[in-house]
Amino acid sequence: MKRLILAAGLAIGLMQAPAQAQTYPNKPITMIVPFAAGGPTDIIARIVGEHMSRTLGQQIVIENVAGAGGTTGITRASQATADGYTIMMGHMGTHGAAPALYPNLKYDPTKDFAPVGLAAGTPILIVAKKTLPAKDLKEFNTWLKATGDKANQAHAGVGAVSHMTGIFYNSLVGVKPTFVPYTGTGPALNDLVSGQVDYMADQIVNVVEQIKGGAIKAYAIATPERSPALPDVPTAKEQGMPEFEVSAWNAIFAPKNTPADVVTKLAGALDKALDDEATRKRLLDLGGIIPDKAGRTPDALQKLVVAEVARWTPVLKAAMATAK
Amino acid sequence: MDMFSNLALGFSVALTLKNIALCFAGCFVGTLIGVLPGVGPIATIAMLLPITFGLDPTGALIMLAGIYYGAQYGGSTTAILVNLPGEATSVVTTLDGHQMAKQGRAGVALGIAAIGSFFAGCVATLLIAALGLPLTRLAQLFGPAEYFSLMVMGLVFAVVLARGSILKAICMILLGLMLAQVGTDLETGQERMTLGLISLSDGIDFAVLAMGIFGFAEIIRNLENPETRDVVRGTIGRLLPGKEDFRQSYMPILRGTFIGSILGILPGNGAVLGPFAAYTMEKRLAKDPSRFGRGAIEGVAGPESANNAGAQTAFIPLLTLGIPPNAVMALMVGAMTIHGIIPGPQVMTRNPELFWGMVASMWVGNLMLVIINLPLVGIWVKLLKVPYRLMFPAILIFCCIGIYSINNSPSDVMFTAFFGLFGYIVLKLGFEPAPMLLGFVLGKLMEEKLRQSLILSRGDFMTFLDRPVSAVLLVIAVAMLVLALLPSIRKSRDEVFTE
Amino acid sequence: MANQDEQAGRAGSGIRAQQDFVAGLFLAVIALFAIWQASDMPLGTLRAMGPGMLPRAVAVMVGLGGVILMVSSFLEEGPALERFHWRGPLFILGGILLFALTIRTAGLIVAGPLSMIFGSLASDEFNWKEAAIFAVALTAICIVLFKFALGLPIPVIAFM
């Protein structure tokens, strides 16, 4: 009996072994997600990865390697063999803000990767406790300026999307409120609902139902157009703050020097996934933004990374310097 | 009356053949991963998410919820059989549960855990149905200050857990607090006590510490003492609890259910406190507290009920407010969003079949757990007959794989080895690991809440006394500490000096 | 009976609870290490606690606990220090380390038997044949269970 199990195990194991062949892919692809399972990046990776697996004819296995604001997982993925069997889901933090936040970063977002394409982003909203008197973004900004450091702004830890975008927003308004750090969006949102803290910036998927249910207020969404998930929330642009446009984007990267035909194949599968109706619906239900055809290409992603690093570095460096 | 029509709707959804099957599948997988040390519900739910794409949202959630409470239950099995707590909530179960197993009463311990959990699950289901909304408001009373005071109370529980010297227990709690501070500082992003290691920048994982100081240290210690090594040498005794066991257990089950339900509702993983609180209470109320830690059945019945009750009422903030109280619930949010349902205050009115179907399925799931687990008790107990020289390499490999799979990281496995050595030294020096683990679990929350409270009060410590709920909690904590210390102060003057 | 030798050696020092003394020393050393590690972190103020405040406060308390234990070990009778063995820690922890080192480079098919057989050496009832058969069989079960039934991304064969 034991021998039988052993033989079966070995046989299954051997089937997994890569037989050298010309066609990519001929074994499962590992996609490293640098965050814990269940977060927005992980969910987007799983939704998109599921459809890409069907196109490629090989399973995309999601491997969550969380730690240090996502840089642990990206560091590991960037050092993997560049054969297309290890790819990663990068993110606004890992490929935009990380150089400013982590001085010892072991990779350069603009140089050490072969970009595949942008997958989906989630818009950022400015939300506040429901008892705040301000009626719109202008009044809110006035209130912020008048309140100064007596205002309490929640965020989900240094390097979190809510932290980075919150700093960005404050720098645009020109205020320095008191930061109240939490270990995640959940606890922060809880204290926002119960009115312990005044406001925060967060991704739409985390707050959409609380806004609809009236538990918190939303002052602005940082997209060019209103979100179909929250048609009543005006954009920052409508309210005279067009420069507050930010979304937490997620994009697929391969390690540097991955063969061009492999990248093309992956990019094609991603493109097809983002055209698929069921996949689109899942992403849109999240409040996600799906890039248009032109925005999904490897070149567009490379440009985005360069632009994001340039945008975040000065804002975050200035904020971190004053924090110390 | 509303509640009954709602529950009727729920059962009409939960009792379809397909949903019963999904619930069974979830509970079965959950029990399996719960029994395997280290493999937590988070990894499993994440893996199964894509499989649920093809299901309707209600069915998918019923299955995933089944995995969650199945895992909670399965974790107790490992805690009782091999002294390995898979989750923070099963740490206290090891104290008396494993002792019972060593005395040949593993079956009774497993049985009472199953029955206590089932009862607690039934009550918690009713509670969610009847009082879900008002209870949410209670949870909203808890700001950072209240939370901090609650954690202080929790630390006092840890003192009471001590089997030997109180001073040594306090030292272990402090050591746990210290380990909890390893990692990136929340506020400034600065790395603290990480020795420059990247793998420590997010702190020490609970499972890494628990597997090390409980699992591996225990193996090393067992190998040194051949007489305690084979967990069951003599007769196994009866498989299921008898009349006397029930007589001793029914009150602890009631009390545990009550405490666990209340703490489960609190945001920020208040549920971890449930089993500790229940254990403390039973030890306090017992006529002969010295039986605790030596295989007292109340020490299994109370915490296990609290554990399961808390696991279920933890759904209340998720379902009514859309705020996940812990990592598993955060993953459930993810699962719901993938199916196009974003949990929030309106789920109850907009998706009543989903909401009530899920509530009803919890009761069904609890029944499933009893059906799955009672027959398994016999198998588990037989497993204990495997000679230890084969048992311990098996525990070793399961732990290694489990730890590895948390972050797919070999360095986590290495840290577990380090904590195994640490745990061995600590055991040799006459310390108890359980208070350290509680200090560790509470430490992270405690620092976060302390700093948040002081930021919000702009540095005023009076905030903890000005706020009534917080003040009451602190008073209870101080009173309990005094009660715990009094006997040892009375004992001898020498010890007064050492306090 | 190494204990007696040690006790005899220490009899003159007046330590009456050897285990507590070493335990206290152990805590004090850890506390000093933590204080040293935390020494370059800003303390901050109560209103805005720095990252260093709580670690240092807790470390000082741990150290204090250690000192009290050491002092009390002179005043009160207590158990002698238990003897430390090397066989268990060496093979068990060595087995775990072998697993950590080989899981990504060679895969579970190597890491499993290697760590289990090495770990088995910790028992004085070790038997080559039995340990090897058991380790291989259990590895096969683990592969089926974790990789295929639960679908965890564990490398099974990584060296080819």
- Structural category of chain A: alpha/beta
Discrete helix count of chain A: 11
What value does the Rg of chain A take, in angstroms? 21 Å
Share of helix among residues of chain A? 40-55%
Short overview:
By secondary structure, chain B is mainly alpha-helical.
Task: Detail the topology: elements first, then pairings.
The complex is a heterotrimer of chains A (324), B (499) and C (160).
Chain A: H1 2-16, E1 29-33, H2 40-56, E2 60-64, H3 71-78, E3 86-91, H4 92-101, E4 113-129, H5 137-147, E5 152-155, H6 161-173, E6 178-181, H7 185-193, E7 199-203, H8 204-212, E8 216-221, E9 247-255, H9 260-275, H10 277-285, H11 298-323
Parallel strand pairs in A: 1-2, 1-3, 5-6
Antiparallel strand pairs in A: 3-9, 4-7, 4-8, 4-9
Chain B: H1 2-14, H2 17-35, H3 41-48, H4 57-82, H5 91-102, H6 106-140, H7 144-161, H8 166-180, E1 183-184, E2 191-192, H9 206-224, H10 226-229, H11 243-265, H12 273-285, H13 298-313, H14 315-321, H15 327-338, H16 347-350, H17 352-383, H18 388-407, H19 410-428, H20 433-456, H21 463-466, H22 468-491, H23 493-498
Antiparallel strand pairs in B: 1-2
Chain C: H1 2-10, H2 18-38, H3 53-75, H4 87-102, H5 108-120, H6 128-149
Describe this structure as you would to a colleague.
The complex is a heterotrimer of chains A (324), B (499) and C (160). Chain A is 44% helix and 19% strand. By secondary structure, chain A is an alpha/beta fold. In chain A, strands 1, 2, 3, 4, 7, 8 and 9 form a seven-stranded mixed beta sheet that branches. In chain A, β1, α2 and β2 form a beta-alpha-beta unit. The longest helix of chain A has 26 residues. The radius of gyration of chain B is 22 Å and the shape is globular. Chain B is built from 23 helices and two strands. Chain B has 499 residues and is mainly α. Chain C contains six helices and no strands. The N terminus of chain C is likely disordered. Chains B and C meet through α2, α3, α8, α9 and α18 of B and α2, α3, α4, α5 and α6 of C.
